[in-house]
Structure formats: structure tokens, C-alpha cells
Amino acid sequence: MRGDDATHQDAADPKSTPARPRKRTPKPPAADAPKRSLNLRIDAESHQRLTIHAVMKNTTVSELVMGYARTLKEFRVSRYGEAGQGGADGG
């Protein structure tokens, strides 16, 4: 028996082979747009009101706040300021 036969047997040991990365199944795409996190600091009374409204509407506080945000009117900022929006007398 030769000395290199023993090292050949050790090389075939499954523990010495490098680990293969596991295959990950892709997550299905979300139905809605990707959500972002918001850290909102409010007083205790406001938090209580939001929580009660969410419970009464059978939803979460997050969904309730998103619903409120959707009802906000669009806010436009003029690049030229108030003078650019003037009437016929224009200044």
C-alpha cells in the first residue's frame, strides 16, 4: 500500500468538498408597487385615533395612512415663481 492512496481517499470525503450555493426560487412580483418604509412620529392621541380607525375599518394603520395619502391633492411648484403666473398686467 502506497502513502498517496490514503490522501486520495481523504479527497473523496464529502466533507472536504466546497459547499455549493443553494438555489433560490424567485419571489413572485408584488401586485402593487414596491412599498417603502416611513418612520412617522406622532403624539399618543393621534396614534390612538389612527389605531381605532384602522380597527373599525378592519385594516392596518399603514393601509389607513396610505389611503389618506392617496386622497391628497397634487401639489405643483412653479419653476418661475409667482411672477411667472401673473395676469395680463404682468408687472
Multimeric status of the protein: single chain
Question: How many strands, what sense, and barrel or not for the largest sheet?
Answer: none
Total strand segments: 0
Sheet/helix structural class: mainly alpha
- The helicity comes to 25-40%
Order of helices and strands: HHH
Q: What is the radius of gyration computed over CA atoms, rounded to a whole number of angstroms? A: 32 Å
Give the end-to-end Cα distance, rounded to a whole number of Å. Answer: 105 Å
Number of discrete helical segments: 3
Structure explained in plain terms:
The chain is mainly α. It has a domain at 41-81. 35% of the residues lie in helices and 0% in strands. It has three helices and no strands. It has helices at residues 3-11, 44-56, 61-70. It is extended and about 70 Å long.
Explain the layout of strands and helices.
Blueprint: H1 3-11, H2 44-56, H3 61-70
Helix pairs in contact: 2-3
Keywords:
single chain; 91 residues; mainly alpha; 3 helices; 0% strand
Brief account:
By secondary structure, the protein is an all-alpha fold. It is built from 3 helices and no strands.
